[in-house]
């Protein structure tokens, strides 16, 4: 392992990026690599495997296990690269002009690499307050993998004092983010030859009415923007994201699926907005479809759900984050993170703070600046000092 901190970070990030951990694939080789790295320092870990046996999270404690400590949390999965125009292999780290390119460098293997690179310093400090590493999977598809781990953490006798979730914020202290609720509506119509279209029930046309209603409500929400809001987008958002339907030009379509989501500012607002849309569709659209044919109608299913984060600005974890980051400001963001689940499932006060910019996440030629990773390492270094003396 290279001795200098920047070289350690580069090496670890190169290793992490080399594992193709797109969410529809196993992350076990990456997890095994991290376990091997930790074992080299004599550090134990708890692996929490999913029901398929193909995914796992890690819970790591450095320092005394009988005292409450602080969590550094990151996910291992990344978004797909298909259809993106990369200038090089996305799973090979490339450095140019102080920028480290590769899938997941910003979101969020850079943060994980920094935390792992600082393990020697954690051990050397002989911590009085423990530092936990929480490394999860399947964050990108709805914060799925952190939930089994948090259920185990919630059972422990000692609850952590707080958590720092290292999503890309340019090391700004984020105390709130929107929640999200995603719904899939499946319209069941009645197929007929298009020459006798009035005898059929057009699933796409009824789906279009739902899409129009979603758009109408989205405009209404935009008009309710909060004044002096800390959010970068100061209102709840609502949109249709995916639509599938139809088989051929000369067939009345008998099925259409519509995926839509709300990102709500309030803790439960996301679900409240989507529930109201479902109720509207059941009252206005489904009866009209059934009047045409009794077997027609709409099925709804939840496809994603996580709550909003709303940590008090004067909370101890916020004050500590500002001290470690060397800044006095805080903000809120539209994108979601696992922080809200740390708070809601395990009662662990949480903030979001990590290297890199969200504008780089999910993009071709994704990158993180080395300067950002070094700032993050400085943050962790101060956390180590704090935990050594308290």
From TrEMBL:
User: What stretch or stretches form a coiled coil here?
Assistant: none
Residue ranges of every copy of the Peptidase M20 dimerisation domain listed in the record: 175-287
Key words, A-Z: Amino-acid biosynthesis, Arginine biosynthesis, Cobalt, Cytoplasm, Hydrolase, Metal-binding, Zinc
- For the protein in the UniProt heading, the enzyme class is hydrolase
One Pfam family cited in the UniProt record for this chain: Peptidase_M20
Q: Which residues constitute the signal peptide according to the record?
A: none
Q: What is its EC number?
A: 3.5.1.16
Q: Which InterPro entries match?
A: AcOrn-deacetyl, ArgE/DapE_CS, Bact_exopeptidase_dim_dom, Peptidase_M20, Peptidase_M20_dimer, Peptidase_M20A
What this protein needs as a cofactor is:
Zn(2+)
Mind telling me which PROSITE patterns this protein's record contains?
Answer: ARGE_DAPE_CPG2_2 (PS00759)
For this UniProt entry, the molecular function terms from Gene Ontology, in alphabetical order, are: acetylornithine deacetylase activity
Q: Which family does it belong to?
A: Belongs to the peptidase M20A family. ArgE subfamily.
Record protein name field: Acetylornithine deacetylase
């Amino acid at each position: 392992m290279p001795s200098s901190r920047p070289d350690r970070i580069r090496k670890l990030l190169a290793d992490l990026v080399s594992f193709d951990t797109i969410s529809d694939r196993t992350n076990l080789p990456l997890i095994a690599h991290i376990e091997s790295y930790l074992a080299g320092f004599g550090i134990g870990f708890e692996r929490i495997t999913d029901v398929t046996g193909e995914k796992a999270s890690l819970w790591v404690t450095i320092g005394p296990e009988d005292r409450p400590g602080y969590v550094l949390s990151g996910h291992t999965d990344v978004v797909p690269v298909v259809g993106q125009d990369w200038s090089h292999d996305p799973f090979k780290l490339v450095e140019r002009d102080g920028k480290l390119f590769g899938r997941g460098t910003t979101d969020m293997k850079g943060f994980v690499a920094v935390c792992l690179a600082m393990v020697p310093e954690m051990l050397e400090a002989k911590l009085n307050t423990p530092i936990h590493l929480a490394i999860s999977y399947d964050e990108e598809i709805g914060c799925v993998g952190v939930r089994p781990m948090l259920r185990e953490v919630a059972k422990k006798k000692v609850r952590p004092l707080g958590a720092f979730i290292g999503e890309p914020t340019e090391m700004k202290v984020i105390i709130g983010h929107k929640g999200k609720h995603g719904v899939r509506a499946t319209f069941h119509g009645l197929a007929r030859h298009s020459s006798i279209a009035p005898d059929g029930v057009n699933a796409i046309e009824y789906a279009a009415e739902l899409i129009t209603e979603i758009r109408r409500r989205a405009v209404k929400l935009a008009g309710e923007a909060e004044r002096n809001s800390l959010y970068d987008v100061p209102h709840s958002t609502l949109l249709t994201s995916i639509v599938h339907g139809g088989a051929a030009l000369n067939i009345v379509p008998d099925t259409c699926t519509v995926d839509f989501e709300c990102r709500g500012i309030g803790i439960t607002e996301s679900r409240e907005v989507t529930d109201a849309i479902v109720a509207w569709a059941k009252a206005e659209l489904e009866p009209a479809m059934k009047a045409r044919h009794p077997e027609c109608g709409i099925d709804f299913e939840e496809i994603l759900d996580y709550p909003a984060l709303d940590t008090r600005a004067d909370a101890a974890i916020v004050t500590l984050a500002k001290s470690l980051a060397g800044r006095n400001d805080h903000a809120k963001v539209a994108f979601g993170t696992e922080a809200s689940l740390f708070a809601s499932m395990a009662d662990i006060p949480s903030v979001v703070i990590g290297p890199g910019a969200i504008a780089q996440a999910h993009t071709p030629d994704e990158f993180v600046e080395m300067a950002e990773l070094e700032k993050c390492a400085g943050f962790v270094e101060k956390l180590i000092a704090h935990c050594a003396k308290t």
